[in-house]
Specification:
about 270 residues; elongated; mainly alpha; 2 strands; about 0% strand; two-stranded antiparallel sheet
């Protein structure tokens, strides 16, 4: 009899241990699901925070310039602050709502632990944070691409002008440096992760390439064409309509370059 009682007691103990182990597995699985989902959202926010540091740098570089509204346009979720960018009202309200939803989830977590995984408090907080991350990402990428388009505009040079420097003894170093730096710039533009250091390096390359363009020897070009490109390629000059002489127009037309330029009011 005693032996039977012992066996029953052992069996009961094993069942209790199995139940406890099964419950622990459920708790662990529920916690892991929440952890993995929120960690993914957190990683995305961290990436976009780094991106925002780059855009803050861009903002300071463009402040008080005509190019500012080209990047941070009226329909953007950012607006100009004091040497930084801040969120517009719509985005600020979305951030505030996300914080409120996350606070609700946090309170529910303290009361219900892993069971909150199936509750609205967690689902709403998770989905709102995901949506906010995607909205910020879209705004970041839009501003970044607009800034890169401005960079391209500043460093662009006609193939004929660049190639004319290739065999010019006085321009050999400038020609080689320009090609090295334009390749480095193109590689940086392809970076999938955008940081402030990346933005700083792009700006440095932009400034260097503009200076190199201004130093190129245009003596092999017709006089008026040389004057026109000197003004276009200089960071310190503006090409005005008086430089667009018949000789320049003929050259641009014969080289299919007319559409490379547009007229803007000063």
């Amino acid at each position: 009899m005693n032996s039977l009682k012992e066996r029953v007691a052992t069996f009961k103990s094993e069942i209790m241990l199995a139940d406890s182990s099964q419950q622990n597995e459920v708790i662990i699985e529920g916690n892991e699901i929440i952890y993995n989902e929120l960690r993914s959202v957190s990683d995305k926010f961290k990436t976009q925070f780094e991106f925002l540091q780059a855009l803050n740098y861009v903002n300071r570089k463009l402040e008080e310039t005509p190019d500012y509204s080209t990047v941070f346009s009226d329909d953007c979720i950012y607006r100009n602050g004091i040497s930084t960018i801040v969120f517009n009202r719509e985005a600020a309200e979305l951030i505030s709502s996300a914080i409120t939803k996350f606070d609700e989830f946090e309170r529910a977590w303290r009361d219900e632990n892993y069971k909150v995984q199936q509750k609205d408090s967690y689902i709403h907080a998770r989905d709102m944070l995901k949506g906010l991350s995607e909205k910020i990402k879209a705004a970041n990428e839009d501003c970044w691409q607009k800034w890169l388009a401005l960079i391209d505009k500043r460093v662009f040079i006609e193939e004929q002008v660049l190639e004319s420097q290739k065999y010019n003894p006085t321009q050999k170093d400038n020609y080689e440096k320009f090609n090295r730096e334009i390749s480095t710039l193109e590689a940086l533009k392809r970076n999938r992760t955008v940081t402030k250091d990346c933005a700083i390096r792009i700006q440095e390359l932009r400034d260097s390439l503009e200076n190199l363009k201004a130093q190129f020897d245009l003596s092999d070009f017709p006089k008026d064409v040389a004057r026109f490109f000197k003004a276009v390629n200089s960071p310190f000059e503006t090409a005005t309509l008086d430089l667009l002489t018949p000789q320049v127009l003929d050259w641009l037309k014969s080289n299919s370059k007319l559409t490379n330029f547009k007229v803007e009011r000063k």
